[in-house]
Amino acid sequence: MLKSHSQSLVWPAVIDPKHAQVFAYLTQLERSQWMSPERLRRLQAAQLASRLRHAAEASAFFAPRLRGLQIDHRTAFDVLGSLPLLTRADLQGNADGIYCEPPTAHGPVKTLRTSGSTGQPVAVRCTTACFMLRGAVTIRNLGWRDLNTRKTFAAIRASIKTGTVDKPVQYQGWGAQLSSLFHTGPAIGLPISVPISGQLEFLDRYKPAYLLTYPSNLRALLDNSPGLPAGLECVMTIGETLSDDVRADTRDRWGIPLYDEYSSEEMGSIAAQCPHGNYHCVAETLVVEVLDAQDRPCGPGEIGRVVVTDFANFATAMLRYEIRDYAEVGEACGCKRGLRVLKRIVGRERNLMRLPDGSKFWPQFGMRDPEATRLVKQYQIIQTSLERLEMRVVADHPLTGDERAWITALVRQKIKHPFEVTIEQVEGELPKGPNGKFHEFMCMVD
Hints:
By secondary structure, the chain is α/β, with parallel strands linked by helices. The protein is built from 13 helices and 20 strands.
């Protein structure tokens, strides 16, 4: 039920004027998700044409690329497809030319900065109108999960800088935009830097119904909990690639739903899972392309690079931005939404292993095999050259020479290449990156 900001007019509700635009967006999004793919594409074309025309006038970087082109709803997708891909290096080195002066009606501009987990931090300017639209998308995504917003919501993530198990961060509802429109229960937060034992104590003490965290952190919670934390009904993950084994273990060990959201600081929500398990792209704000090695569109069942265009943010011309992720294109979803389907988010480019023959693939090291999990509690592998892997391992006892040799042989067997493997045993937990995220494998080979 909507939350009324009038004590006397409870129904129909009086919407908070500050967030009425979010509600207006949400009302439209609830309808547009059920439109046919053909109708959605026509609406996208009209908005994309508007965005391209603005970039041709307001972006010093894109103006030369768009000069002389006829841009309207009939040509918008062809014009977009003619543009070279925009890279993080472009955004770093040409930011002033990519930034645009937005129309006054779009409101004040805020700067978003990425964590720099790829070693290439970037800054993107975003209008107030786009922020509100992104907020409405987030609320719609939550609606797919059939949550009771009056229950307790907990988050464990890097953006939470303060708070302890004894005194977690207390929020006024589930976020300003959601809580201004709907009645919500309490929300609490804990920094990702709190050890896993403390996180489990936090869940046991406050018994939230819903938890939001990173897949790697969920992996650690699953591995260290005796069972389902009391009261927990659903887990939501963000910020990292969600592996099949984490999804399966959440189902098998805890027996609760798991919903993943694919997003970025630069673009906001890109795609979110519906109850059928498919990722639906946000057609109302973005054009999402999945391209093969020859920059051709991938079809269902094919894996390619994700390229995203934001046609709602008029402060930064994010046109054909190569976000450096890979995804598998999906078939039409059984939920009947017309939004484009990604079957799965496969991984980041830096999670691809490289071999001397030039081939690339997502490696599986066998460290989730039952025999390996009895020996290795946590691991991280970094490829430092085409022939060398550096492996950091957490175990409950000092590894013997035979055990190190067994781990090395297992890794070589699984990836089918005789890498030189060095193993460093680490006490406690392996440290997370500066953005609070953890990757079991990273490739440092250019």
